[in-house]
Predict the structure of S41 family peptidase.
Amino acid sequence: MQITTQKVKLGLALGMALTLIACGGGGGSSGTTKPVNNGTSPTAQWQAGVYASSASLKDKCATPRTGVDPVTNNAYPDKKGSETLEKLWLRSWSHESYLWYDELDDVNPAGYGVLEYFERLKTDLRTASGSYKDNFHYAQDTAELNKRTQSGVTSGYGFEWVWGSPYPPRSLHVVYIEPGSPADLAGIERGMQLVNINGRDLIYDETDAGVDAINKGLFPESVGQRTPMTFKTLSGNMLDVSLTSTDYEIHAVAKTTVLNTTQGRVGYLLFNTFNIFKSQQPLKAAIQQLKDANISELVLDLRYNGGGLLAQSSQLGYMITGPDIVPADAFFERIVFNGKFEEDDELVFINQLLDEEFYGTGVALPTLNLTRVYVLSTGNTCSASESLINALRGIDVEVVLMGDTTCGKPYGFYPTDNCGTTYSTIQFKGENYAGFGEYADGLKPKQRPNLNFLDEVPGCRVDDDLNHALGDTQEALLAAALQHMQDASCPPEPLRTNKTKTLQRSGPAVQTASSHNPLWNNKIYPNKVVLQRLSQ
């Protein structure tokens, strides 16, 4: 498990799909991971069944960028090309690397826009539950992506919400407020209901002009956009505010506390994203704080964690357990490709901080030496969060899942920039040390799990509680975890509803349009058109 100066092999999770990946040695593989080149020559025309190598088509842009890439400090590689070449690159790249490449129709790109064509390059097959197998296919502006992932800064109002329904009568409630953001400074709190925005009735307005105004307010297109809003508070009063979209810092480690209970000292850690490289130090400090407090149990709140860097998920897994619990030959996750790559790979449990090139720094991570962890989950617990749960179960660490079924994404990708747009398409699946990775319909909390279904995890199904602050011992998910520690009991299971509850952030929309789900695509940065008219 020692990583010294080797470059760490990363996978990444798509939940939020705002992740970077580094290729190289370490983690059980000494070779690089590259698509097989079929040796064909580039062409500007589509020919059924004939694919030029993606490398020969890359960076040939209809509108080339000029200047220096702020991430690499090198000139942009763009050359003058065309939309046709951009689409043909997408076609070849997908044929080489897409996990289910043999399920793709070879669609003629003529007549499609670039992003519209990219939307066609995914499977339409479904899982056993009837859900689409690929709900994680999207594109986004490269510059905006780099701002979020490299600096930990995003733009918007700073609150996240869930939809009760996108149809009139609509229901939208705030679930989380980023500290120091415009929403925080305006006094917006968890549980508040948005009832009016941009002068439009969010609950009932179904006119085209109303829907456009609501979407414009929810998803500010630029920093400095000022939007009037009215919220209904938990006490029933109305709060009128005017929020201005701005750049604000994302706090991945949102809360760390030690709870004194009859069972001893319990650590509570609210961790909201694996996406931010700069969150390594805060996460290390949080675990050190819990270690110094000599906690005997850990409640890890991942209910709004849509995923991110798989390497950071591996670091957290190591910090929860430690060298005495992780088997000497164990890996965190096996990365399984589509058969066209040179080899599959393995990511180890990472025991130290990484530098910006994903090399080990030699700075050791603190460990809690726990053999059990309680994880709070919702349908927004996704990707690298699910990998953490699955990886710990793969080395026989007891994971108790409290909340709801996770999003169901045992897959990952290498986000790839071409001509100023970063594309994310499913390129691998992950398996734990025990060989399990089939949870496309989510990891399900069950008080009495069926041992024949490995996607069922011991725990309790509990609805998210918007009437209490996160970390409050009276909040339903945390209260259920503390009670379960005491007597292994679960509260009465809530009735299931058909209401859509998907986490969204008041920031820029992703430049994509998913026909599979009108509400969201990557769990955090949703499609722009999210509201529906009742007549549709």
In short: Residues 1-41, 508-536 have pLDDT under 50 and may be disordered.
